Here is the input.
Amino acid sequence: MSDTVRPGMLSARLTRLAMWAAALALLVAGAALNLATYLLSREALVQQSLEQARLVATNLTAAVAFGDQAATRETLGSLAGVSSITAAQLTSVDGGPLARYERAGAGRSIGPGLDLSERLQVAVPVLLEGRPLASLSLEVDTSSLVRRGLVFGGITLAVGAVALAMAWLFALGVRRDVSRVEQRLDDLAHRDPVTQLFNRHAATSHLEALVRGPAHRLKPFAVVTIDLDDFKLINDTLGHAIGDQVLACVGQRLQQRMPSGGQAYRFGGDEFVVVSPCPDGQLSPVSYQQLVLEALAIPPLPEAPDLQLSGSVGVARFPGDAQDVAELLQASDIAMYAAKQRGKNQVVVFEPGLRERNEQWMQTANDLHAALRRGELRLHYQPIVELAGGRIVGAEALVRWEHPQRGWLLPGDFIPVAERSGLIADIGGWVLQEATRQWVRWRDRGLGALELAVNVSPRQLRRGVLQQQFEQAIADSQADPRHITLELTEHSLVEHADGQLGVLERLRAQGVQVAIDDFGTGLSSLSYLKRLPVTKLKIDRSFVSGLTDNGGDATIVGATLAMASAFGLKVVAEGIETEAQQFELQQMGCDFGQGYLYSRPVSPADFERLLRGQTVQARSALADQRA
Here is the structure.
């Protein structure tokens, strides 16, 4: 991590800073203390010398008044007992010398060359009844103060050194604590706590170092994005603790099986990224599929011995697919989403066309946001026919998009984008509102209480908004919920059965019908079918299309009808296009059907015409019978 602070650097810097601060503080404090002591001692010496001068001046008054030179010299000589005074001089009022004293060996005289940094000069007058007779000057030696100051300074330095040493020992302890905290913070910033792999932040730093190195040292490498398929089902059914255990196991196996020089990262959720310099991977990126398969083949868990993991894998290569880190990660992510769209458990290698399709996807997502605001979505209705009598008994509401530039768009053009972007929940809510309003309009126009089927997205279940959206639609439209069927795909019902069973049961208690759409494609078990509050099954069109010429499809349809009869469920066959298919289904006992044989999805007005035409035909047939 070239642009980050390595663990230990902060604690070392703080320790050095603390020691420099302590040393500077001790130095300043010691210097200030020594200077203050010297100045105070110097002031005391001056005061002491002044007192000594006044005492000598008093003793000199009589000798000076009578001009007694011997007495004057004797009085000045008494200063020999004062070690700090090195010289004394008695001068007349007009400045003439009267007498002088100098300590033997002093080697200095009082005069203009006095060095005040070593000696001080004090002067007092010699008075007789207040009248000055002469002036007495004393020269005071400060070398004793300097010596004491040096000794005191040495003691201060010694004490400071001991204090600094103690501070250093204390700082070492603090440094160890800071280093531990720093290491912990580094782990939190750069490592995933569940898998102990490096995280997205660390991956970005590592990749920056790889792509920004010297040109002659740059080596090709691959970025492999792995997203575990349907991992939410593990968390929902087994709990997040087991989910974390699975993630930790996958991360450990990924890192263990990494080619030399490779590194695995967890980007969050169920997404892992591998950075690999593997030369074979550069030549054949799909070889990473084996790495992923081995990593996902985790040992059986006691809580889920039959658990099988799969993953969608996207591969991007540097420098071929991108020139910087952001583009490289985006390319790998785009390839991974393409793998999911191709049916999951796939490996897709990035190509420029994928980026173009991703940009188109983003544009479609942006346009879809605007379409919801501008009211560009429309509902078309495909009739549901009673096979025994050929009568239209209901319709399936199918969303269309009247795009201002691209014209009419079918669900396949935008529903996958809505699912991936999360807009599908909002679209699903709008469909419920519009479909229930249309049901009421048809009822009020005398067309009867039709059965109306509405497709529901798994995201409406996952986000917990389905019941709220449905109840709001019924409250706004005043439609009869007993004539509304919510269609969910077999896969989404099985995937979210445990978490959303209560929602579906509450809706059923309101009279709502629940149908399994595309039945037979999701490999659901009978135990799930028994638990779910389902009232209808819709046989997928892939089985209906091969009904008359494929024995296997006929067997599946027959088994589905028998199973539905055993559970008391109605069956709707989708994709009926020929009369032979209709006849075969009718012979097998299928209740209802829909498909191009009867009508394509049409606008509300066209559907109303179909219904009214059916009514006219019925009246004509009745009149013929009476005639």
Summary: The longest helix spans residues 9-66. The first strand starts at residue 85 and ends at 92. The CA atoms of residues 46 and 336 lie 91 Å apart. The two ends are 94 Å apart (CA to CA).
